Amino acid sequence: PGPPSVPCHTNRLINEKSPYLLQHAHNPVDWYPWGQEAFDKAKTENKPIFLSVGYSTCHWCHVMEEESFKSKEIGEIMNEHFICIKVDREERPDVDKVYLTFVQATSGRGGWPMSVWLTPDLKPFAGGTYFPPEDGVHHVGFRTVLLRIAEQWKENKDALLESSQRILEALRHTSEIRVRGQESPPPAKEVMDTCFRQLCRSYDEDYGGFSKSPKFPTPVNLNFLFTYWALHRTTPEGAQALQMALHTLKMMAHGGIHDHIGQGFHRYSTDQHWHVPHFEKMLYDQGQLAAMYSRAFQISGDEFFADVVRDILLYVSRDLSDQAGGFYSAEDADSYPTTTSREKREGAFFVWAAEELQALLPDPVEGATEGTTLGDVFMHHYGVEEAGNVDPMKDPYQELKGKNVLIARCSPELTAARFGLEPAQLRALLQECQQRLSSARAQRPRPHLDTKILAAWNGLMISGFAQAGAALAEQGYVSRAAQAAAFLRTHLFDPDSGRLLRSCYRGKDNSVEQSAVPIQGFLEDYVFVIQALFDLYEASLEQGWLEWALHLQHMQDKLFWDPKGFAYFSTEAGDPSLLLRLKDDQDGAEPTPNSITVTNLLRAACYSGHMDWVEKAGKILAAFSERLQKIPITLPEMVRATAVFHHTLKQVVVCGDPQGEDTKEMLQCIRSVFSPNKVLMVADGDSAGFLYRQLPFLASLERKDGKATAYICSNFTCSLPVTSVQELRGMLRP
């Protein structure tokens, strides 16, 4: 892409580690990172702060940078009237959340890039999202907004300060989530049923998913439906829930949201058919979807779902993995179409022109109808059209004109029949085409890779590898999960303070670097890492992971628990630059930490005998009780946890030698059954081991007739011993 030019400007972001902040280091804007230096300068010079929040795979963030932040003239206005701060929302979700709450409350919508004007003591008084640079018929341009706000600050500063104080008080009041009076956890059955009905109403019968467009993968909805099915197996509603989840996962895997050449899933679909996506690929989607497709395989036994799991994990291992074991955050949507292009385009790396495919796949196909080429078969199967298959309505900037987004339009059986081929022969042909196209694509300039490594998202990905390893009986996936957990322990955990760190970065020569002042872990980092360690213990039976998980749970309680209103705050106390301590109340692209932590606490209690944790789980459900009863569809993961709380977890204890064949067979049986309320542990007879120290009742369990034996326990009271795998399978169902 164009010859490298010597930058005219360099600002303080050059010293940061975040790839997103570094992208702005040569803007003519005098950017500061979030921190005391900028706050002090605003106070000394009595200037308002302009805060811009974004992230590296955000398309409109790139647009606003190109149009406004790279403009010398706009840069001069910004530098003259404001102290300008740039924040990567993935590094600082705490800062993002406070000001997003303000922008949503005052404008009715939020998003990124987020543009907020603050007083020198960080109180917001004006805000919005993307601004085009110049005025248009229907909008005010960024330059005008900057000049108007600068003018207001000079003329009406006191009125601005007063209104910002009022807004802040209102936000403090409306964003509070707490127990009022003597609330107890809401009734599980009603909450589950209401959530199911609400999901049914938004479900798309034809294409799966839960909205018309845009369409997001929403793993939290699928996870809820699997649990709903498991607890209502014999009812028509249960069957319907399972059908909704499996159909959605199938349609996504066939769709253009799934990268049929390079594996993995894009962020979301712009249309109802899962066809034309926004092309960025996020680590948190890969981690959660690997877990969902693993569950779909566990439940249905359909190899189709296992293949999708392998596809996702291949992509992550190849393209999002640091050689030291951590996982990178994301790949961008925009890239240069060719090595000589001057301008990036959305999707350029992923889309195909029909003539390009014909040129790459010219070989005649043996045994097919006369004159059929590989290209004909491939293009028919993946819905390729000569003039391109993207609806112009979904391509407002004509970036995809004449191009095709691959989408499996037919079943393999139909495509095979159409060309007179056997299904097995077709599979081999499509695989050959994919390999060829993958090599061709490797010649294109790759999209930008965000090599920031986040504890929370690594936790979600470790869970994906661990659950896949257990469900598919693939030891390699479990080892990859363990390698990533060891990476977290080395690079994102401070053994002196016992605390997690939020992020680290790929440095020069592939080293792992930390910022000068490391960012401390947030609630989501603890919650997703603890969940990952429990999943990893169940897949690997290495007790060290359990021990670390319980340590982190104690630390989470200490840093984030709200003793007055119950549940956990997203951030710890004591940061003067954060105006609000909030609790998230929505399961979105990622589940909200309070939802996952309910199940974590119940698992922690099962492994430790520490019953205070069960009580805490109940208190969280009580704090969210009103929302769970009225609009449970906003918290499907917490609804699921409500059911687990009421059904009590089953401790499935296997007594046996972990290396023995009989133990392995029993473990394989336990791992192959989807049961949302089971916790697995192995009592290997090592009475000095961590689990025996935590749970004295294990000492009374023994092998029957010298064979591996399972006990199913509830609240530390155990069933009769079971040595038959068949019998055990029946007992594991809820």
TrEMBL record:
It holds the Pfam family Thioredox_DsbH. InterPro entries: 6-hairpin_glycosidase_sf, 6hp_glycosidase-like_sf, Ssp411, Ssp411-like_TRX, Thioredoxin-like_sf. GO terms for biological process: carbohydrate metabolic process. Signal peptide: none annotated. Residues 10-171 form the Spermatogenesis-associated protein 20-like TRX domain. This is SPT20 protein. It comes from Dicaeum eximium. The gene is Spata20.
